[in-house]
Description:
Layout: E1 6-10, E2 16-17, E3 33-37, H1 50-54, E4 75-76, H2 81-87, E5 91-92, E6 96-101, H3 107-120, E7 125-129, H4 134-143, E8 152-155, H5 159-169, E9 173-177, H6 194-211, E10 214-220, E11 239-244, E12 251-259, E13 267-273, E14 276-279, E15 298-305, E16 308-320, E17 327-330, H7 334-348, E18 355-361, H8 373-385, E19 393-395, E20 398-399, E21 405-406, H9 411-420, E22 425-429, E23 445-449, H10 452-462
Parallel strand pairs: 6-10, 6-11, 7-8, 7-9, 9-10, 17-18, 19-22, 22-23
Antiparallel strand pairs: 1-2, 1-3, 4-5, 11-12, 12-13, 13-14, 15-16, 16-18, 20-21
Bound molecules: thymidine-5'-diphosphate (TYD) and magnesium ion.
Residues 107-108, 131, 177 line the site of magnesium ion (MG).
Amino acid sequence: MSRSKTTYACNECGAASARWLGKCPSCGAWNSLVETVAQAPAGGGKNRLGAAFAALAPASDVQALASIEAQDVARTPTGQAELDRALGGGIVAGGVVLMGGDPGIGKSTLLLQALDALQRAGVPSLYVTGEESGAQVALRARRLGLAGSQVAVLAEIQLEKIVATLAARQPAVAVIDSIQTIYSDQLTSAPGSVAQVRECAAHLTRWAKAQGCAIVLVGHVTKDGQLAGPRVLEHMVDTVLYFEGDTHSSFRLIRAIKNRFGAVNEIGVFAMTEKGLKGVSNPSAIFLSQHADPVPGSCVLVTLEGTRPLLVEVQALVDSGGPSPRRLSVGLERDRLAMLLAVLHRHAGVATGDQDVFVNAVGGVRISEPAADLAVMLAITSSLRGKALPKGFLAFGEVGLAGEVRPAPRGQERLKEAAKLGFSVAVVPKANAPKRKDKAFEGLTIHAVERVEEAMALARQLA
Ligand code: TYD
Ligand code: MG
């Protein structure tokens, strides 16, 4: 079989070269040349890649928006309620999902469980494994209690053979585990290289769109999320899901980073058990550590993930540091921590300049919203003074550079969840404090603050 010609194209400027070069001769960018399949330009155009990208979405004539028939996408629930939540309701025909995450976090486990549930519901499915043999997948299925599963399994890493199998079996859902192991015969680069990952994903995406088959691509994230990581695919696919969580704890989160068919920032919560991943339908309290009595340096906050409030404990440790004190954070942004320390110093007179400061969100959860600010500051001052905050204490609110405490979105919902879980004292931004008495907040004493120094003074009184 004759190989189609490959050339090297610069990622930055698009210049082509017959062989690989470290520096693009055209724009001078370093290490930007990536192998691509040379295709005859469609319609006599100059862009060699035109043919490859045209098919991602079929071209059409100009029409008024109102006259285009908009069909509601049909979703097939996967049988895993938490996965469906992250997907926006279920798998969409012709939709391509990228599932990223660290190795060993549970991607293969969850997808095998989902495929089995779909297959049992009469949806033909195909599981393509490039990392494990068919026997290993079968062994895993036994462990998951999926004996007698009718899911079709293909152990193959060559793209052309995979596509031929897809064409022959016409599954409604296919999982490619993982995209980094697949290679196309058209390219000479190794599997897992940017060129291969991109070419294989583009090919499979075109196939999915043309045939109406839903495809889930599994991708490993490297530490920097860069080379050969699934990052290069994010713009191609319809939905990007990221698995996160601490492999040492049993809880796993699935977060939608991008979703053309639903909301982003909705998370699915799972617990890893010896029988695979089980959805946690009421996750609000799972990220609280189980202290009998409050300890110094710990503060609970309510964060909102998608539509659900989640109570998370933030821990801080402030300890005398060396000549260059360290600021480390796990699950929270480090730059934000530096900013909060500066605000603490300037507006509340709490100096940590010569101290090491460590901050951690319990349970491997990642908090990106600024509503965590107040709780982080309270945890830091609590650790610094060696005094625990009272039992049943929580706080949330964004802190600005001027020392003002700004409201968090949907504060009442957060407070309701805290009251439901039996919390008794809350320090919140003034605008989030309920105006009227409400039964939903019963048992919760709510202190409204406008400034950081007020919050710190209040905490000192309560502790
Ligand atoms: P796996 O799904 O192979 O991860 P990935 O595909 O993301 O690399 O994940 C597996 C981890 O989960 C593995 O370390 C063992 C554990 N596990 C369980 O705890 N219970 C189970 O039922 C299964 C199948 C795996
Ligand atoms: Mg795997």
